[in-house]
Fold this protein.
Amino acid sequence: MTEPVPASPAPIEALRDKGPDKPPRSKWKDVWAQFRKHKGAMVGAFFLIFITLGVLIGPYIWTLDPQALDIRAKDMRPVYTALWDSTAKTGWAHPLGSDQLGRDNLAQLIAGGRASMAVGWAAMILSLVIGAGIGVLAGYFKKLDGPLMRLTDLFLSLPILPLLLVAVTLFRQPLRANFGPEGGMFILIVTVVGITSWMPTARIVRGDVLALKEREFVLAARSIGTKPFQIIKRHLLPNVLSPIMVSATLGLATAIITESALSFLGVGFPSDFPTWGKMLADAVARMEDFPERVILPGIAISLTVLGVNYLGDGLRDALDPRIRGR
Amino acid sequence: MKMKTLLLGAAASFALAPAAAMAERGSDGHVNIIYWQAPSIMTPYLSSGTKDIEASSLVLEPLGRYTETGALVPFLAEEIPTVENGGVSEDLKSITWKLKEGLLWSDGSPVTSADVKFTADYCMNPEGGCAQLAKFDHIASIDTPDDLTVVVNFDEAMPNPYGPFMGGQSPILQKAQFENCVGAAASTCTEANFNPIGTGPFVVDEFKPNDVISLSANPNYRDPAKPAFATATLKGGGDAESAARAVLQTGEFDYAWNLQLAPDVLASMAEGGQGTPVSAFGTLVERLEMNMTDPSPNLPEGERATVAHPHPILSDFNVRKALSMAIDRPLLTEIGYGQAGRPTCNLVPAPELYASDNTECLTQDLEGAKALLEEAGWTDSDGDGIREKDGVKLSLLYQTSTNAVRQDFQALIKDWWRQIGVETELRNVDASVFFGGDPGSPDTFQKFYADVEMYANNFDGTDPQSYLQMYRCGNEPKPSSQWQGENINRFCNEEYDALLDELAKTGELSKRGEIAKKLNDIITKETMTIVPLVDRGRVSAHSNTLGGVILNTWDSELWNAADWYRIEG
């Protein structure tokens, strides 16, 4: 009599195959999940979207012309001033008050935001394209590394504000003739901010590419004969995306601040073209009597830049697979 | 008893304190002056900017100056020559100046009549591009019979012979220093232009163009007790507002010049208690200047904004008139200057003898302006709100210096012009550049690469002759004169020039007044070449511890810097 042999031994628990119990997740879903954990980044992103939408559709909702003068309604205070000072000159016609010539502050804020954001986005995209391009080329092609990085050093040593002042003197006239006073100035500021702020991106990208191109997957790709540009497109760019995104957000902030500084110095856009920096500059003289005229555009600049910085911070965390999930 | 002695002692020391402070040269330490337009050169002959004229008046002195009432007072001269004292000849064709005896330059060498003669030769050199040439109009010859006597001979009767060597605009230069800087070499003599040897209360220790000037008391100044300050700093740059703040609120500076600030801003700053704003009315008129030549960038450099090309729009009198009619001057004055301004239609608003009774521009007439443009053929044919004629759009570039009040004016005027169908592009240029007179910069007011520009100007002394002479045909800034010249509008009018000649021949005061009024009317209401806006009082501010300041609108504001002293307290 033999003992019946057990059919097959129960597999060791650890070695048992597990069927997928959850559907697979895409990379971008993971990124989003991680991003949502960063509260600051969420607030920053919401604020940025709010401001961007505000300046885009704001003029259709609040239809007052930001440049229209109304001397009778000059020096109005924001409506909330009435809470503590019932004698203040306030009115719902100008919810955020009006300036010394009776221009509506809210309309100016919206119009000013348009200019500032447009400069910010355009300069950021420009510097991103230049920076990423130069960084990847310098990192991947050894021959280009030296010249391109020396070029980067050269640009790093250019002081942006004096350069802008010179550029304004030299190029304002031809640009104005071709694109109008505002368009010409826009192109000038965007170009100068763009070509003077790509260097950090280029350096970071180059460093990452230098490390990445020695990795096995790149070697594998090379060994099957993938062309350099295919490798860059398929393997390198996706991997350096996170530093690029981060420096992009920082670039947006820098561009907004540079534009504000220029307008504050009085060499930016024409004097009646509202931007946040311009509003600040105009209001400084009456800062004590009408603090809101400094505070409102000041807050707008600060919060936008802060929001963008937080957004960048969150993006970096979310895009880095080593941090993700922690 | 004891109390009484104490009080007496206190009273005595109080009484003596200012006297003691004034008794000795250099006993009051240091004085800080701020000019928000930075001086770029230390001689008035190479720059017509007020900042340069005033800065150089600390070092360079004329033979006589104008006081705060417009009276004449001798500085280097023994006395003011007049017909009564025999200094001016009966036929008004020569004036004899006597220098004070024993005058020394700051380097210790004696001041002689040769220096005075040299100064005139220096400015009258045709290649020099002298900015004050109008002061030396009609000089036939200058004789120096002895070391202290200068005889200026004019080629015609000069009822006002006080053009040369009078006032902050034509001080005396040292011949030895500037001898090799004549003619085309004038602007290349950097050392002399930045550190001129003078007779004034201060000498330049260090000159940083467009930044700061360090000065110290002139050891050879003619009054051994003056100046009370051993050293002085003239800081340039910034803007009117920070300059006002530095004197009125923080007390960092002792004197701030020309505070063109909105009245409410200045009033709230004065509550700071560190200083006092002072104001006086003179002849300073904020005006719009119409460019009679074409500033189009399509023209080749050297022909742009020169008389070779008349302006396509502003050559039409009706346009200029309509632009003027659209402006509400009382409102501008109220917003920009308050008590420190009066609306005006005159280029020469004072003294009374020369001020025309021209007031028709004071009422705004938008409808009239529209009708005038319509009548002149400027119509809005394509419905975009902007008038055109023969394919030329009524679109103007309007420039001025960077200043909050001026930008407010720009915004207001642009709005009015928009209402009559004129498109305006605004531009503001940093004041140091705009008034800098640099022939290499495209943004100076002399180059006038714009259609309309706004600034203020005035004249020294009480006689407007040389001021009106600025608009003589041919005196315009042009490439051949290195863009120096005072006829900013490039105005050219035969009748005007003929009247100028007549004014120069007329001695009788009431007759002079009549001619000057006529000249004023030609250039303002009859041709609208200059569109005056506001007669501005000069507002400056001094610290409460700075004594002796007398605001002078007829000469340099620093005219009596030698008399300034520190109030202890």
